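We emphasize that the prediction below concerns an isolated chain of 130 residues; any contacts that depend on oligomerization or on bound cofactors are therefore not represented. The input was used exactly as deposited, without trimming of termini.
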Amino acid sequence: MGKEAAKGSESMKALIVDDAMMVRFVLKKFLASIGFDEVFEAGTGKEALVLYKEHRPDIVTMDITMPEMDGLQSIEAIMAEDPQARIVVCSAIGQRDYVLKAMELGAKNYLIKPFQEEKVIETIKLVMGI
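Result of the prediction step, given as a token string:
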């Protein structure tokens, strides 16, 4: 695939929010494969908010269950900061109610763990409009 999805010469930025380092690693690899050249990582919702304000990423992947500030609180805070934020919720199969709440708060789509590369790429491209 490569960089064909990149918006002209403008760099594409993503923020991966998950307390599991392995999940961040996998998502970073998938995002790089479709042209994201700046990928920031946060292990908590609090870190996510700080990084969002600092970098204004084009897309955010957000875990729900995390220490300090969970994904729902973080989505609410990011959407208050930037109502145009593109957030994709990442959840385990049994978290349907949390996913629905996240969508109510402004998340644009969701992914179910464990991730399938094709589904992640398809969802990210859909949300980004690329």
